[in-house]
């Protein structure tokens, strides 16, 4: 069993790293301070092919075979972007995982032809509206409703914390809504594509977030928003189940984003520990500092291996047994990598001392960015529940 990346994957990593260091890194402090979403750079990411890594050639994607490891390539790209800035990493992760994947996986041929080419090219973005004030993991609590009227869905409700949903290049948001009641009286949840600019659909002003200042995130409202009945995505009543299937991939991608953050912490701490002098010697000579940096390196390697293993399982394809194994591996990678990332930023801030508390140093930004990794695309508590269920425990 090999734990080494292929030569092609390593070359691809270097390409993305060079792009991130030249096109993103020099601008991040200002973008972060100004809460600026750089649409031009996002589109350059598209020109580099990053949004099309897992898409077929007929829609402008890379058309990579399973042996080429398309999902592993996506995770490498997210890792390298996240090593420079977490916001740009999540823009790619959400653009593919929550924007492209639902349409690519569940869309009709007409929906794919209409939406995928621009999304795959990275010239446009799409979001996925699931979370509400009282609903996320609990599908039954969804309050957004959609009613068929003269061949159109009429949507009313609201969503929150939706990434890539209100930028200048957002083309659509797929939303989950109650479209009736299923057997037993539970809400029937369906997914519906709502194009940007549709009357009644409003992306409210962006959030003032703790971290991810560069990422585009909005609450959404729908007031008698009408879209064609053909905008139903996938099977009616299967919207939440479809999203859960998409979410497994997203958990691995978020783990990759966390790996990039841990790598940044290691790099920054090593450099600082060699440069910073106390009592006539670099602080890296002190065991109290050196051992903490060593702990970061251990967390990095463990997180990376768990993430790459899950990504390789995804690339290998799925039958009933391997799908269950992939879901288990995805939750393990997501839980360990994201919690390690939060710990890594705390350690890095401690190594930097008072400077780590200053916004001019990247560790302060990474410290702010880290916490959401334990929350988005399935909280740590949800991952523990899923892992326990995978072991056969009847946890609720």
UniProtKB/TrEMBL annotation:
<feature type="domain" description="Acyl-CoA dehydrogenase/oxidase N-terminal">
    <location>
        <begin position="7"/>
        <end position="122"/>
    </location>
</feature>
<comment type="similarity">
    <text>Belongs to the acyl-CoA dehydrogenase family.</text>
</comment>
<dbReference type="InterPro" id="IPR009100">
    <property type="entry name" value="AcylCoA_DH/oxidase_NM_dom_sf"/>
</dbReference>
<dbReference type="InterPro" id="IPR006089">
    <property type="entry name" value="Acyl-CoA_DH_CS"/>
</dbReference>
<dbReference type="Pfam" id="PF00441">
    <property type="entry name" value="Acyl-CoA_dh_1"/>
</dbReference>
<keyword id="KW-0274">FAD</keyword>
<dbReference type="InterPro" id="IPR006091">
    <property type="entry name" value="Acyl-CoA_Oxase/DH_mid-dom"/>
</dbReference>
<dbReference type="InterPro" id="IPR037069">
    <property type="entry name" value="AcylCoA_DH/ox_N_sf"/>
</dbReference>
<dbReference type="Pfam" id="PF02771">
    <property type="entry name" value="Acyl-CoA_dh_N"/>
</dbReference>
<dbReference type="InterPro" id="IPR036250">
    <property type="entry name" value="AcylCo_DH-like_C"/>
</dbReference>
<feature type="domain" description="Acyl-CoA dehydrogenase/oxidase C-terminal">
    <location>
        <begin position="237"/>
        <end position="391"/>
    </location>
</feature>
<keyword id="KW-0285">Flavoprotein</keyword>
<feature type="domain" description="Acyl-CoA oxidase/dehydrogenase middle">
    <location>
        <begin position="128"/>
        <end position="225"/>
    </location>
</feature>
<keyword id="KW-0560">Oxidoreductase</keyword>
<dbReference type="InterPro" id="IPR046373">
    <property type="entry name" value="Acyl-CoA_Oxase/DH_mid-dom_sf"/>
</dbReference>
<dbReference type="InterPro" id="IPR009075">
    <property type="entry name" value="AcylCo_DH/oxidase_C"/>
</dbReference>
<dbReference type="InterPro" id="IPR013786">
    <property type="entry name" value="AcylCoA_DH/ox_N"/>
</dbReference>
<dbReference type="Pfam" id="PF02770">
    <property type="entry name" value="Acyl-CoA_dh_M"/>
</dbReference>
<protein>
    <submittedName>
        <fullName>Acyl-CoA dehydrogenase family protein</fullName>
    </submittedName>
</protein>
